[in-house]
Design a protein that fits this description.
Layout lengths: L27 H9 L4 E5 L2 E4 H17 L7 E5 L4 H12 L3 E4 L6 H11 L3 E5 L3 H5 L9 E5 L7 H10 L13 E3 H7 L14 E6 L9 E5 H14 L8 E4 L6 H13 L3 E4 L5 H11 L8 H8 L14 E4 L6 H11 L2 E7 L6 E4 L16 E2 L4 E5 L14 E6 L6 E2 L3 H7 E2 L2 E10 L5 E6 L4 E3 L2 E3 L1 H8 L5 E11 L3 E10 L7 H9 L10 E4 L13 H13 L1
Parallel strand pairs: 1-11, 3-4, 3-5, 5-6, 6-7, 10-11, 12-13, 25-26
Antiparallel strand pairs: 1-2, 8-9, 9-18, 13-14, 14-15, 16-17, 17-20, 19-20, 20-21, 22-23, 24-25
Length: 559
């Protein structure tokens, strides 16, 4: 039973083990925010501000336009946009029209765009003008009937627009008026703020969120309105920010489920302000935090690493920062400590995955750090169950301290994978989501991720977990970024090999790195090879892609 779990005694005082979630569609959170705080600023983009009253009106207009253009309940509409106001307007507008959102990475190439549009059966795309050429080349192979084009300049203050045109610094691309091509600004002006009367139930599909494809072909996780509302409300309870007062930095990409929930949906649920940045540039982030008195920075370890290592970081006033939850990849303890010293805010590690909307665990945001366990992903959130089971069968629950696969259950867990019953049956068993992550639970109910199932290194029969070695490497003052993989070896099976990006101006030899690790781990975990690089392959959220590094090593072996 949920009531008997050991982690409840570590919950913050205002967080209940069980929450009564509102039975509303996801856009109902925006309706409520616009009623409670109509004049609060919902969005800031390059100085341009949009209040909750205005955001509601824009999403109503957009929903009205979509309906007039043929979008009906259950139709999939794709967003091919970076972090701009049009993403937020488009997202909630699609949901108000009864549609289903699928978001594409702005970094996608033609093949990736074509795959997601075809697999999701999208009928419409909202696209940034700069990305239109990529989209146009694949439209004929999809079911897309209409395209709505927008530009970054549409939501810039007038002075910036004028200066941008003079100095040609606003990135844009002229898209010709063609059949089935419409323009974002024109349709917003044309249609009234009267969304169609479509019955949208909490159980209805809201999002087709594609996984990153790290374990094969990307799959569309089917997330309902109820899933997303539940996770936004769970976030609201866990992060002790007063309603209507928070300022959230929106630098995590909104097309990714982490940014979508922990930046955008949480912001709306808490009537906060989100400051959108289209990309991660360290100095721009520092300036933005200082200028807008940002209180929350949801992020990934790479972001925090780059911030603390920036030579000018201490010159900025970052004292407004209160709460930060790190996700998407393991948080090195050394980076966590440095970031908290720099800002004075609390940075804790959390955990989630696309299939769970995404958050399931986090450490309490405890300023005393008494209930924070360094190296742990924390404890399960309200209404969320979690346990460790044996890797072989997935059926036997393991006692505290033993390593196995993490499985979770809760209101934020997806319905299944789109058009993929086989993968759904594998991932969802008796209501439990099998995460594919290897971990353990301690006596207090705190969970620890050891590694991905597929990243485990087998050295002479021993199990070596890359994360453990990476945490050690981050203690070395010369290391900026690192990754450890198993390199095929005819004798040992696999040997641990690390890839390192050094901090600017730092020098260190392969032997020094190996000796550094040797003094801190068991002999079988010692690194056997070191490769220095200028950068490492990462996802848009900053997670280092070990898979890509492994593939490169395999190619070398086969040559």
């Amino acid at each position: 039973m949920l009531e008997q779990k050991p982690w409840f005694k570590f919950y913050p005082k205002d967080v209940p083990p069980k929450i009564d979630y509102p039975r509303i569609p996801l856009f109902g959170l925006l309706e409520e925010a616009s009623e409670k705080y109509p004049e609060n600023v919902a969005l800031i983009f390059e100085g341009f501000k949009i209040t909750y009253r205005r955001l509601k009106e824009l999403t109503d207009r957009f929903a009205s336009a979509l309906h007039s253009l043929g979008v009906r309940k259950g139709d999939v509409v794709a967003l091919f946009l970076p972090n701009v106001p049009q993403f937020v307007i488009g997202y909630y507008g699609v949901l108000k029209a009864g549609g289903v959102v699928t978001a594409l990475s702005p970094l996608y190439k033609e093949k990736e765009v074509e795959y997601q549009l075809k697999d999701s059966e999208a009928v419409m795309v909202i696209v940034l003008d700069l990305l239109y050429p990529t989209l146009k080349n694949v439209l004929g192979k999809t079911k897309v009937k209409k395209v709505i084009v927008t530009s970054i300049s549409e939501y810039l203050p007038s002075a910036k627009k004028i200066l941008g045109k003079i100095f040609r610094k606003i990135p844009s691309l002229k898209v010709r008026k063609e059949e089935r091509v419409y323009f974002f600004r024109e349709i917003l002006a044309e249609y009234p703020p009267k969304p169609p009367k479509v019955e949208v139930k909490p159980e209805d599909l809201a999002i087709l969120q594609y996984t990153g494809g790290t374990t094969g072909v990307p799959k569309g996780a089917m997330l309902t309105h109820a899933n997303l509302v539940a996770n936004a409300i769970q976030c609201k309870y866990w992060i002790p920010e007063k309603t209507g007062e928070g300022v959230i930095l929106g630098v995590l990409p909104l097309f990714h489920i982490y940014g979508m929930t922990v930046v955008m949906n949480l912001c709306i649920a808490n009537c906060s302000t989100m400051v959108l940045l289209p990309g991660f540039e360290v100095e721009k982030v520092l300036k933005t935090v200082e200028k807008y008195k940002v209180t929350e920075i949801p992020g990934a370890p790479t972001m925090y690493t780059l911030i603390v290592n920036h030579p000018k970081a201490s010159k900025y006033d970052l004292s407004s920062v209160k709460f930060c939850i790190s996700g998407a990849a393991p948080l090195p303890p050394a980076i966590q400590k440095k970031f908290m010293e720099l800002t004075g805010g609390v940075l804790v590690e959390g955990y989630g995955l696309t299939e769970a909307s995404p958050v399931t665990h986090a450490n309490p945001l405890d300023k005393t750090m008494k209930t924070v366990k360094i190296g742990s992903i924390g404890i399960p959130w309200p209404d969320t169950e979690a346990k460790i089971v044996d890797v072989e069968t997935g059926m036997r629950e393991l006692p505290p301290g033993e390593v196995g696969e993490l499985i979770v259950k809760g209101p934020q867990v997806m319905k299944g994978y789109w058009k993929n019953p086989r993968e759904t049956e594998e991932a969802l068993r008796d209501g439990w989501l099998y995460t594919g992550d290897i971990g353990r639970m301690d006596e207090d109910g705190y969970f620890y991720i050891v590694d991905r199932k597929k990243d485990l290194i087998k050295y002479k029969g021993y199990s070596v977990y890359p994360r453990e070695i990476e945490d050690v490497l981050y203690e070395n003052p010369a290391v900026k970024l690192c990754a450890v993989i198993g390199k095929p070896d005819p004798v040992a099976g696999e040997i641990p090999k690390c890839f390192i990006v050094l901090k600017e101006g730092m020098k260190v030899t392969e032997k020094e790195i190996i000796d550094f690790v040797r003094g801190r781990v068991a002999p079988y975990k010692v690194i056997r090879e070191v490769e220095f690089r200028k950068d490492l392959p990462t996802t848009i959220t900053g997670k280092v892609l070990r898979r890509v590094l492994r593939e490169e090593e395999l190619k070398k072996v086969k040559q």
